[in-house]
Specification:
Elements lengths: L3 H12 L2 E3 L13 E17 L11 H7 L3 E9 L2 E7 L11 H18 L3 E8 L1 E4 L21 H7 L9 E6 L7 H8 L5 E8 L1 H4 L5 E6 L6 E6 L1 H25 L2 E6 H7 L3 H5 L3 E3 L1
Parallel strand pairs: 4-5, 4-7, 7-8, 8-11
Antiparallel strand pairs: 1-12, 2-3, 5-6, 9-10
Helix pairs in contact: 1-3, 3-8, 5-7
């Protein structure tokens, strides 16, 4: 079982070095003062695009229409409320026996919460389980959080479908998951990111997820049904797994590009050992204080 308390404290210590960076803009600490990359309703003009059915008619550029006989709409940068929702995948695959994933995931959640606080953002933490429920004390300091478990016999995708999370619009959303479930990544990220200003997905894998043993007997356990299967892993079977994982990750990367989300992968054991967050820093998700 994960050591939730110690993991939260570890994440808080690391998070104290960072601040959440909203869409490459320095947080200003007041609602409406953060600017995102996606089009919205603030007064800073971005660009034009072709009119689409359902667009606000007040944004049509009538002068351009008179010149070109084509309907275009004006795009503006969206004002972002300084709020961060952190969503933890609470499915059983996140806490298999002897896995470092749950400790790394809990620590990352605490890190993002502290980094949000350092940037002047409010935060809340949710468990994607049977519905998407708030963690006890999730709006406060991570050391006060209560009720984090990994007992859900399902996937976050099903969780989002089952109960609408009701997250605040125009905030930043962070999903912490191994992503090792069958879903349409594009549909999932579209739904997860609806009305958000920015989306960050951190894929948390155990070392054994990324690099299975070269050969030997392996017991596979279905995290939803507890069904088991004994297989002999040879070089051919291992290569099939590695190729399938790479294809799965590529599907998620492609969906992230299409939706404007930031997607990065961490290995739980490595993260807890050295806390290197280069990808998140390079993507301007975090900044060093």
């Amino acid at each position: 079982m994960p050591d939730v308390r110690q993991s939260l404290l570890a994440g808080m210590r690391v998070g104290a070095r960072y601040a959440l960076a909203a869409a490459n803009r320095a947080p200003l600490g007041a609602e409406g003062e953060h600017l995102a990359h996606r089009a919205g309703a603030s007064l800073e003009f971005m660009d034009h695009r072709e009119y689409q059915l359902g667009d606000d008619l007040r944004r049509i550029n009538w002068a351009a229409y008179a010149r070109s006989d084509k309907l275009t709409v004006k795009l503006f940068r969206e004002e972002v409320s300084p709020h961060c929702d952190i969503v933890i995948d609470a499915s059983r695959s996140m806490a298999l026996p002897d896995s470092a994933k749950p400790n790394a995931t809990v620590a990352l959640a605490a890190l993002f919460a502290v980094a949000a606080d350092n940037a002047g953002f409010a935060h809340n933490v949710h468990l994607a389980g049977a519905g998407c429920r708030p963690v006890g004390g999730g709006r406060t300091s991570p050391e006060s959080w209560d009720g984090i478990d990994f007992e859900y016999a399902g996937t976050p995708d099903e969780s989002f479908d089952r109960v609408g999370p009701g997250w605040p619009a125009r905030g930043i959303r962070v999903l912490l998951s191994d992503l090792l479930w069958v879903a349409d990544p594009l549909a999932c990220l579209t739904r997860f990111g609806q009305d958000a200003s920015a989306v960050v997905v951190v894929q948390v894998l155990a070392a054994a997820d990324a690099e299975p043993p070269a050969h030997g007997n392996v017991r596979l356990v279905d995290s939803e049904t507890d069904a088991t299967m004994e297989i002999f892993l040879d070089a051919t079977a291992r290569q099939r797994y590695v190729s399938a994982l790479a294809g799965h990750q590529e599907n998620w990367r492609r969906a992230a590009v299409q939706t404007g989300a930031v997607l990065t992968t961490v290995i739980a054991e490595n993260l807890l050992d050295d806390w290197r967050l280069d990808d998140l820093l390079a993507a301007d998700v975090l900044k060093v204080l």
